[in-house]
Amino acid sequence: MRIVLVGPPGAGKGTQAAYLAKNLSIPHISTGDLFRANISQGTDLGKQAKAYMDAGDLVPDSVTIGMAKDRMSQPDAANGFLLDGFPRNVSQAEALDEMLRAEGMRLDAVLDLEVPEDEVVKRIAGRRICRNDSSHVFHVTYSAPKTEGVCDTCGGELYQRADDSEDTVRNRLEVYHTQTEPIIDYYKAQGLVVTISALGKVTEVTERAMAALPNGDKAA
Predict the structure, then answer these.
(1) Which of 75, 91, 119, 161 has the smallest C-beta neighbourhood within 10 Å, fewest atoms?
(2) Annotation-wise, does 138 bind a ligand?
(3) 127 is in an annotated binding site
């Protein structure tokens, strides 16, 4: 099964992608992982991406598309994949369609995780990270520490990352609405979009997504 996962920041795409990929026995291909892998391995595409990033510039679509094409051509993706963070705009979506057509393939579904904007802000702006270990993550509402501002695990100070502030989150949402959300209409025209609510427990959202996918009951 070949799936594109879309949704606003804070929708839980990374978490759901991992669960869905495991349930469907297909690789989870995220843009972040592609960039890290190519840069750490020193590939030509990785060197190009790093040069743009070091200069503070956006990485061109052509580089991102090249990385995605290379990853999707690997043996473990022969029977499908779940794309997370790619395509990020309509140009990338059109390029993906061309890549798949050239191989005689097509997408099976575009899974749209729907979350109200106020909930997105609440989820992200409420996160608190431990200064001693960034893997220790709390939330002022959903998983509050026993003592405010103190990590339950190691006693370190909890803080809010700059990019988790409400103003920054709303800016990120605006970028999503402007750049990425149009791909939903692009794929709706192809009859591929499956929209599900991303509210509730992680397992509930996963079950909802599996049931909504084409032949989802069999895939589970």
Answers:
(1) 75
(2) yes
(3) yes
